[in-house]
Amino acid sequence: MSKTKRLTIASGVFAAIILLLLFIFRQGIRDHWTAHQKYKEAIGFMAQEKWDFALKAANDAVHLVPGSGTYQQTYTEARRSFIKALKTRLETLSPVDYLAAVHDVNTKFGDALEEEGEDQLQSLSFEHESAAMDQVVLAFDTDMDTLGKIFKGREAVFVEFFSAGNQSKARVLLQTWQSFSGANAAWSAEDPPQVAAFVEKIPVEFQKAIYTDFQKKLDGVRKQIKAKWDDANQLVAQNDYLGAKTIFVSLERHESWIPGLQQARNAGQAAGEGFYTQKIVESNIAKQYQVAGGWLRKLLQLQGRNIDDIDFDNIFKVGTTADFLQTLAKVGLHPVRPEDRKNFTDVLLVAANLDNLTDSGAAHQFLGETYLTWAASEWDKKHFATAAYLALLSQKHGAENTSDLFEKSRQALAEQFTIAISVQPETNTAANADKDFCDVLYSETVNTVRSNLPPWIKYEDADNPLSGFTPMFRIKLQVGLEKFSSDYQKNVRPVAKDYPIQVTVDNPEYANAETAVQTAQTALDDANQQYQTARQQAQAAAAATQAAASQAFGWLGGAIAGGVTSGTLNAISHQPVDVAQQNLSNARYALANTSKTVEKTEYKTYKWNEIDHTTTFHAAYEVDFGITNASLWSQSLDGTAHYTSTERHGNDEISLTELVREDPDLQKINSALADELKPKIDTLAGNTLLQGVKTTIQKYVAGAGAAASPEAQQELLIGSELLWWDTPLRDNVALANPVFIGRFGDVISSSAIVERKNPEAAPQNSTTNVPVPIPTTSPDSIAKVTSKPSKDEALKAAVAAAIDEGNPVGFVSVMGEVSSPGDKVTCNEHTTVLEAIQHAGGFTDSANKKSVRLFHRGSLKDASTIDCEIAASDSHQDLPIQPGDQIIVQRKGF
Q1: d(CA 111, CA 584)
Q2: Most buried among 56, 496, 514, 664, using CB within 10 Å?
Q3: Which residues contact 542 (CB under 8 A, 6 or more apart)?
Q4: What does the alpha-carbon distance between residue 547 and residue 278 come to, in Å, rounded to a whole number?
């Protein structure tokens, strides 16, 4: 580097140092001057007792010239005076305001106070922290305005008011205030659920007046919501679904606070659509088209659809099927394209309006095809009972190829309801009974049960265990000879018997014949006497007449008079004498031919004693019906056989043979008892058992369907009836339940199979009485159903007709200790328990009349117990029954 360059650099460095020294010197002079000015300000503020300004100025002077003793002394005096004045001012504040003021001073003057001053302030603050917390706690028991004065504007620094040891408590107080503040804001925003959410965060120790006030407000809202909820449900009960929807919508902002609101609204929506649709159907059937239009208006309003420019008074006019469907398409009730179909409301309306359409053939074709489509969709949803029922309706309206869907639906349905049944012998309590006899009864029971089971009820026992599936439930029949007894009676019978003896006696007819002869003789004598007297009188008169004539007319006159009198004598009749003579001859002939004596049979009485030795044998065969270990009902079948022999002495005089007492032939007795019990076993283990199974399924369906939707309830109800399609227990009346109209628009005929002779015949203009055959049903099964003997044929026909007409008539089952257990008893809304039992043949001798169980349809567990002995004299205790109920009469001691 050149010398010149080095000199240049050194000169520059020197100049820089000189400039730096000049700057420092100048800055020092300036700081001293500024510090002096601050010192003078501090002295002035102190003179005016403006301690905060004096402290600030003195602190600035000390920081500008740290080594000045004058400035330090002035600062110390100003700080002490400031703190003294601060204490005086703080004494007038509340504890929280005290802490807030100290915090503000510390924030504003912290640097000016230095460590000693800060310690003094901290000491002042700490002394008031406890009181401040008490103040806040007390404020929770006042009102929001008072509490707000404590916290508002201080939320960010409130915790800093307190020392480290109290900050966690202060934080709880702050959070409690924030919860109250949030609740207050939510209340102002009319958001009660959010209010409740904030209030729930309030610690228990702070649940005082403000908390109580919020709870009262919330309780008021809850009452309002409860009232609206009740109003909505009341409107649903009154079928005012539009009104209910309005209330449900108004409650939506409280949805988080009302569990189940959306579910209730959806249920009300579904129920309303079903109800309004049903009303549309009913109104069309009644030809009340304007009323039907009004119901359609409500349906569309419930669905939130646009109803402008719709003439509801004339929307259901009579026309062709195509026109009717086009009208339904305009209001969204009929899909324009098959793939757009979401429901089958149009089917319900066409079915309801079937008689009003001018082309019934096209309507039937539409219904037949659409019911089949509906059935297929239900099959896809695994609603097999509904699919089978819709297949029946499809065939009812003339559709073909429905049998396959019906049969496979019914088969799938049977797999859902598969039941296992077993017959188990109980230990025979009748130890004196013959084992072979017990085995005969058990075998008869097993054979009858197995021969009567439909395919979907599986029989199982030790030799036939079931595998590969789990049944819905297991039914168990426990059977055994409960009693086998004999009763000997000896009876001494006095016998008196008359034996005949031949004797000769006077013949009373001979005396009568003699009397007749005497009477005839007397009559003959009287006739001769009368005849002679008449002639004598006539001769005397003739002589007198002749003499008078001769005297008057001479001989000629006498001659004439003589001729006249001769004729008079000849005119006197001899006939009475002849008759009397003949009678006498007859009487004498009769006497000659009458025997004086006759042979007569008389009787002689013989007496002896006969002794009857009678042994009466009684067998009680117990059948207990249960599920798993729960007994549902039991039935005792009684059989009686008599064996009588007679003992007596002989009598040779009357050829009376001797009789010797004979001992009973037990083999014949057992055979007689078995012959008497077998028909009862066949009945009980046949239809009665199946009726018990059906009742059990019905109770299961009622229990499972109690909380289900109407569609699910109907699925179970239809399924439980279709199970018995090929059995004598098929109930066509139940399958034609009018309740199905609301869902399907139509029902199968209550006479389903038996009335229609030609399965190929096209349906006519009818929605209720067209029978629905299934081609795969054999004539034998039809005959089995129609020819089943019944003591109530006429009554059942009347009931079927009544159900077709919508009358509330149905059946109940009576099980247990009655004369005809398992029989279906007809009932209506006025039928009582005792009347149903009477229709089932009345109580048996073993019945426990004081504990009769009544299970209502829809309940598996809850049952009523009736004391029928009391109910017989108090009608209020004789409960009414409903179709589908089951009555179980238990045995004494059960």
Answers
A1: 184
A2: 56
A3: 561, 562, 564, 565, 566, 568, 569
A4: 130
207 vs 199: CA distance, rounded Å: 9
Bridge partners of 464? 461
Spatial CB neighbours of 845, under 8 Å, sequence gap ≥ 6 = none
At 360, list the tokens.
């019934």
Rg of the chain, C-alpha, whole Å: 60
Spatial contact of 117 and 153, defined as CB atoms under 8 Å apart: no
Q: How far apart are CA 522 and CA 74, in angstroms?
A: 197
For the beta carbon of residue 564, count every other beta carbon within 10 angstroms.
Answer: 12
Rounded to a whole number, what is the largest CA-CA distance in the chain? 254
The percent of residues in the chain predicted with pLDDT above 90, rounded, is 7
Is residue 125 over pLDDT 80? Answer: no
What is the rounded distance in angstroms from the CA atom of residue 367 to the CA atom of residue 370? 5
User: Would you call 720 exposed, middle or buried from its count of C-beta atoms within 10 A (0-12, 13-18, 19+)?
Assistant: buried
Query: In a 10 Å sphere around its CB, with 0-12 CB exposed, 13-18 middle and 19+ buried, how is residue 483 labelled?
Result: middle
Exposed/middle/buried for 669, CB within 10 Å: 0-12, 13-18, 19+? buried
Dist CA 778 CA 772 (whole Å): 14
Taking the C-alpha atoms of residue 862 and residue 883, their distance in angstroms, rounded to an integer, is: 17
Structure tokens that stand for 566 in this block:
């001769």
Residue 257 carries which side chain, given as an amino acid letter? W
The pLDDT of residue 73 is above 70 = yes
User: Among the ranges 61-65, 416-420, 464-468, 553-557, which has the highest mean pLDDT value?
Assistant: 416-420
Per-residue burial over 659-668, b = 16 or more CB atoms within 10 Å of its CB, e = otherwise = eeeeebeeee
Quick one: pLDDT at residue 580? 83
How many Å apart are CA 342 and CA 333, to the nearest integer? 9
d(CA 320, CA 72): 113
- Do the Cβ atoms of 616 and 486 come closer than 8 Å? yes
CA distances from residue 599 to 503, 507, 594, 677 in whole angstroms, order as listed: 6, 9, 14, 58
Predicted TM-score of the model (pTM): 0.47
pLDDT in tens, 698-752: 777 776 655 567 778 788 888 888 888 888 888 888 888 877 877 888 888 654 4
The one-letter code for the residue type at 212 is T
Q: Find residue 642's DSSP bridge partners.
A: 616
**Pairing relationship of beta strands 886-891 and 810-816 according to DSSP bridges:** parallel
HSE value, Cβ hemisphere, 13 Å, CA-based, for 110 = 6
3-state secondary structure of 304: coil
Confidence of residue 799 (pLDDT cuts 50, 70, 90): very low
Q: Hey, what amino acid is at 397?
A: H
Alpha-helical runs (H) found in 706-807: 710-722, 732-735, 741-744, 779-786, 793-804
pLDDT of residue 369: 92
For residue range 335-383, list pLDDT tens digits in order: 988 888 888 888 888 888 887 788 989 999 999 999 999 999 999 999 9
Answer for the pair 575, 527: CB distance below 8 angstroms, yes or no. no
- Rounded CA separation 707/692 (Å): 24
Specify the DSSP element, H or E, that contains 408.
helix 403-416
The owner of tokens 């959010």 is 194
- Which burial class, exposed, middle or buried, applies to 120 when counting CB atoms under 10 A from its CB (0-12, 13-18, 19+)? middle
Residues 6+ apart with CB under 8 A from 587: 513, 516, 517, 519, 520
Q: Phi and psi at residue 606, in whole multiples of 5°?
A: -115, 140
Angle between helix 508-570 and helix 575-592 axes, rounded to 10 deg: 160
Report how far residue 537's alpha carbon sits from residue 539's, in angstroms, rounded to the nearest whole number.
6
